[in-house]
Amino acid sequence: MMQDTRQSSSRDPLLRVEHLVVEYAVGGKTVHAVSDVSLQVARGETLGLVGESGCGKSTLGRAVLQLRRPVSGRVLFDGQDLAAMHGDTLRQMRRRVQLIFQDPIASLNPRRRIGEIIAEPLVIAGVKDPRKRQELVCEVLSAVGLDPGLVTGRLPHEFSGGQCQRICIARALVLNPEFIICDEPVSALDVSIRAQILNLLEDMKARFGLTLLFIAHDLAVVKAVSDRVAVMYLGRLCEVGPSEQLFARPAHPYTALLIEAIPVPDPDVRPAESVPVGEPPSPMSPPSGCRFRTRCPRADQRCIDEVPELRPVAPDQFVACHHPLIATG
Amino acid sequence: MTEPALLSVEGVTVDLPTPRGNLRAVDHVDLTIGAGRTLGVVGESGCGKTMLSRAILQLLPKKAKLSGRVMFDGQDLVRLQPERLRKLRGRSLAVVFQDPMTSLNPVLTIGTQLIETLQEHLELDGVAAKRRSAELLAAVGIPAPEQRLTQYPHQLSGGMRQRVAIAIALSCEPKLLIADEPTTALDVTIQAQILDLLAREQRRRHMAMILITHDLGVVAGRTDEVAVMYAGRVVERAPTPELFKKMRMPYTEALLAAIPKIDAAPHTPLPAIPGRPPDPTRPIQGCSFSPRCRYAAGRCYREKPVLADAESPGHQYACFHPIEAAAGVCA
């Protein structure tokens, strides 16, 4: 609505994730959290990342920031590989990328005043002048719709979940970042508050010229804010495409299943008697070939033997499936 | 509905003492549900929907003060002796909670928990109870039920645990099942499966069901009637299709509008509800939605609107400035 959205992923990517693999050990076993995922986010774009719990979407977000180091693969931010950076150089780059978490109350230190919480990134970044810091804190608080005079001296418990998420957004904005990773930023909030925060994120994106990676499990929420959407399942990317197109014509059976499963607030839309599709297998022992095959109505021998590669099915739409729902041109 | 109600909640009020003063969690709620019917109770967190379900089940915290009547199958549960109440709960009155991890006992096997319920209420012997348990697990879609009986809750996924909780709730053929946010902790594909399961069992057993949720999408295609709660009160109540098409209460309208729609174009600004729900320890003098309502005017800030009948049967709302009945469609 506010700016033209660049649908093409090839134009000016700010973030490029290449063949990212993230694994971790749990009780002697390996969790294959992210397996060979490649994606890019163009400058000024919002990429939505959806999937169910345990699909690796949060791990992917954290691996971008190197909060969890990948096993292999590259994370190119503005052309530089974050995965190869350490210490000070990495810290310098992290200023340009910020993170907003799901639980806004848990992500604020309960013993510190809001003013200090938001100023802390500035202190770390070396803004020495307290007045300058105060000025910046007031600026971001006003931007997120809070009155700095009423807010800075108070503690997090004095605020509701929605207000705490505004504070978290203010803290993420204070260093004037280019890129923000939002990890389920509204799933802990009530419907009436959720809409306020989604609108705020959209406003902030336009006002500060941000690029967003928006991670969520709710497809309708993701569609509301994203230019393009990437769907993840058990650590792999299933499908990527422009939001509208992906929802109108999903190519991956998993994307179609997700769309069908959303409860629609309309009594005329009878819930589809869902096909019994079972539950996702464990990421500790993912199925061979296509990881969705154990729940997929279209699966055959090829899906057991061969890992499907991401390939184009429509303009800007890519799918990793041997038997996509739309014919490849 | 001419048949007598299976459950009728009459003027139920729940007060909880807190360090900050009295918290009125439920404020004069009246509801009825007939045998074999489904009622959705919708509202945001803190609106009192869970406290209402606990008031029906007589499972309120000790400090809570309850007034009003809860008539179930001809008896007032509020005044029933604890012994008789215990016989009723789990047998004709069952419940499924949001979090199956905390509602199941972590140190007992699935089988022990099912068999315990069956033996307590149906006086089955061990062999019969075990056979019945396996049948119940199969009925709720759990593969290899015999093996599952020997497993512990932590060995099952969230969706499977919720199926077990449903199996336990259904084990004694209840007349009424209260499902309190049964799918909130689950993923969307699993949510659809569990909601289908509940709907199927409800129809098959001709059981009444109260489905408590914050998600209007969950109740839309799956209930006969919906009650919308705000700040401890029922603010609108109607047959489900009527509620969605001819809502009169501005809160219902605002709540529905604030949900992101899957068919809306990306970057469409959402009609958010300004502000936030009132602090339940500081009651508002007028309509509790008035500070956030775009139709609010003078009287709304002074007087509390009572739940009154709309033109169509079974539809009630509490508002001085209701939304005009939708022109064109069915008006």
How does this structure look, described?
The complex is a heterodimer of chains A (329) and B (331). Chain A is α/β, with parallel strands linked by helices. Chain A has a domain at 11-86 and 229-263 and 278-329: Rossmann fold (3-Layer(aba) Sandwich). Chain A has helices at residues 57-64, 87-94, 114-124, 130-143, 148-151, 161-173, 191-208, 219-225, 243-248, 253-261, 301-305; strands at 13-26, 29-42, 46-50, 72-77, 80-81, 97-100, 179-183, 211-216, 228-233, 236-242, 311-314, 317-319. Chain A has an eight-stranded mixed β-sheet with strand order 6-7-8-3-9-10-12-11, with helices on both faces. In chain A, a hairpin with a 2-residue loop joins strand 4 (72-77) and strand 5 (80-81). The longest helix of chain A has 18 residues, at 191-208. Chain B is α/β, with parallel strands linked by helices. Helix content of chain B is 31%, strand content 23%. Chain B contains eleven helices and twelve strands. Chain B has helices spanning 49-57, 82-88, 100-103, 110-122, 126-139, 145-148, 158-170, 188-205, 216-220, 240-245, 250-257; strands at residues 5-18, 21-34, 38-42, 65-72, 75-76, 93-96, 176-180, 208-213, 225-230, 233-239, 308-309, 316-317. In chain B, strand 4 (65-72) and strand 5 form a beta hairpin. The longest helix of chain B has 18 residues, at 188-205. At the A-B interface, helix 7, helix 8, helix 9 and helix 10 of A face helix 8, helix 9, helix 10 and helix 11 of B.
